[in-house]
Write a structure and sequence with these properties.
Blueprint (H helix, E strand, L loop, with lengths): L1 H34 L8 H22 L7 H6 L2 H36 L11 H31 L8
Helix pairs in contact: 1-2, 2-5, 4-5
Amino acid sequence: MKVIRFLDENIEKMICVLCLATMSVLIVVQVFFRYVLNNSLSWSEEMARYLFIWMIYIGISYGVKMDKHICVDAVYAIMPKKAQHPYAIVAYGLFLVFAIAIVYYGDLVVGMQITSGQVSPAMGIPMQYVYAAPVVGMILTTIRLIQSIGGEVKAMKSGDLEEKGE
């Protein structure tokens, strides 16, 4: 149970930190090879790009978890406090529909990549691993959105009128 709680609280953060650290090391090594040794690595830029893609999609989930995604805060400021939780539920619901659509269509694309057998040009890794980033990221985002909707429903039922974003 402690492992599940730890992963629930930290999985996105750990993946993003790992991706960012690896990207940073790769880019520094590439600069060293290119400008000091006059010989560049053929695969480092591609790997850094793929890590960046994964970091972005996992970061979306982390943003939802931390309630730091893009939203219209100005609407909350002019909205009565009683309407803020229903507004948030609708916003999360629309985002949830989008995330589920990305998972569905992303899964189709990953399936096509598996069928085609396409590999990346420099590293030769199967491209389905790159195209899986939106699917995995949006699955995690879906979980976080469901948690957020549950939190909003709970706050609305308990009569918690604390302003959103505080």
